[in-house]
């Protein structure tokens, strides 16, 4: 939410959110929001007894909330701020990869998953948890240059694509030599065509097992300017 991580800066942002007209304001903190993590707080905040006013805000820290809407509709939102170590003790909720908290953490009934880590950084534990729970929407941030959205499908084509992207770089010349990436690329294309033809065309949208990934970062790159457009999603 903020860059400095101080209690005062976070409170100002919470006050702004509270003033917005939306019924629910669901918050997951980022690595710069140091005050939320006692182990990462700034020295001035660690010596203070001041707290945050979270009234009107749904703050999630490894927990779920059920949002109720008119007509009896409900959405289950699960949020967790954890992310792999970035270096620097003032980054909140860091973990060492062997101690990743994600396994079995997200409830199966989750409709919306809110985390801070962008999948593009590559946390295998979080990726496995997304595959296990398959939320309809996963909202994150952290990588400002990656702001935007992308539809993904939990099928063989997606598995092949992820395996392809996980391969270490070989270089342009080595990529011209037959290797495993050729096979994975062919599998991704063929399995993608198969998934489209036999699921979408034959079963329609009801046959889709997809999810929407949204990087909702507001800062434009590392410029410090809030220039990215807000992401609006209809579920």
From TrEMBL:
The keyword RNA-binding does not apply. Its EC number is 4.2.2.-. This is Putative rhamnogalacturonate lyase C. It comes from Ceratocystis fimbriata f. sp. platani. InterPro entries: Metallo-depent_PP-like, UPF0046_metallophosphoest. GO terms for molecular function: lyase activity. The keyword Lyase applies. SUPFAM superfamilies: Metallo-dependent phosphatases. Keywords: Lyase.
């Amino acid at each position: 939410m903020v860059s400095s991580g101080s209690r005062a800066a976070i409170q100002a942002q919470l006050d702004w959110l509270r003033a917005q007209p939306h019924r629910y304001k669901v918050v997951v903190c980022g690595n710069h929001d140091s005050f939320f993590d006692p182990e990462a707080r700034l020295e001035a905040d660690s010596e203070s007894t001041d707290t945050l006013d979270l009234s009107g805000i749904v703050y999630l820290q490894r927990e779920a909330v059920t949002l109720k809407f008119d007509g009896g509709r409900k959405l289950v939102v699960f949020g967790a701020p954890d992310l792999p170590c970035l270096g620097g003790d003032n980054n909140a909720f860091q973990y060492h990869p062997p101690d990743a908290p994600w396994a079995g953490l997200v409830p199966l009934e989750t409709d919306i998953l809110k985390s801070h880590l962008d999948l593009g950084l590559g946390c295998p534990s979080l990726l496995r948890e997304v595959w296990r729970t398959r939320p309809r929407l996963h909202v994150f941030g952290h990588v400002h240059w990656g702001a935007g959205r992308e539809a993904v499908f939990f099928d063989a084509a997606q598995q092949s694509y992820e395996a392809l992207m996980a391969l270490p770089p070989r270089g342009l010349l080595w990529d011209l030599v037959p290797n495993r990436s050729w096979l994975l690329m062919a599998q991704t294309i063929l399995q993608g065509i198969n998934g489209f033809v036999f699921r979408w065309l034959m079963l329609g949208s009801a046959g889709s097992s997809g999810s929407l990934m949204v990087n909702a970062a507001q800062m434009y790159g590392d410029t410090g300017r809030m220039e990215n457009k807000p992401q609006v999603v209809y579920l």
